[in-house]
Amino acid sequence: MSGICDGRVVIVTGAGRGLGRAHALAFAAEGAKVVVNDIGAEADGSGGSLTPAQEVVDEIMAAGGEAVVNGDDVSTVDGAERLVGMAIENFGDLHVVLNNAGIVRDRMFANATADEWDAVMQVHLKGHFLPAKFAAMYWRDRSKAGEAVSGRIINTSSGAGLMGSIAQAAYSAAKGGIASLTLVQAAELGRYGVTANALAPSARTRMTEEAFADMMAAPTDGSFDAMAAENVSPAVVWLGSEQSGHVTGRVFELEGGKITIAQGWMHGPSFDKGARLEPAEVGPIVDDLLREAAQPTPVYGT
Known about the structure:
The protein has 302 residues and is α/β, with parallel strands linked by helices.
């Protein structure tokens, strides 16, 4: 197996099913050596089994690729450190961390519980922070030692994180945090030869086919299946290759054969009195600014 990622060592978290599985297989098909990380939990984070990850590894090896299973919990310090260490120990290097692991606790905001909120933040935000942190430490040390580094952090955000989504307050907040985290990683790590980009994929997974059943339904007439998870992977693999070194700090919306670069928060219309405003002055000023400002994309589900 050879391609644009020949010899590159790639970690994919949450790679036992859905998008993670598709990404792991696609990286391997392009010559990468893949660490397939998955604890085998259900979509809500319960349970656990290494079987899904092992099946992905078996499929990669049967096709002539190289891969190993990792069952560490990436939302824990020890688990994330072991994961990064395993990649380096097994394959001698590390080039890409693709953070994909996640869970959902969908509920209307007023009904959400603190435990549900904490669980989503733990897996999504902390589970993105920790593997990338240990990889960044490795790449920084190599760069400071005078070695050439071609590191890639690829984070998984969501349209929910960019625009919001009804009944997904925790998920939307976590995914929005991941997008912001990506911007900081890109700004801080570029000096070491590392890029950081994020994905906002739209595809059929265990999480989406229940929440958006009609939109995610597979076609029955043989037409292009725009929601197949495999459609997202080509752009992801390219972001993990050496060819993407000039691209960092971006969020890519990916669906079917479509690639969109998201344009997030930026400075818009402004007014400056040059002195302290009075409360009664604020309303008319805001109304004028709103007339100039672009209309936000509606929250999903509204």
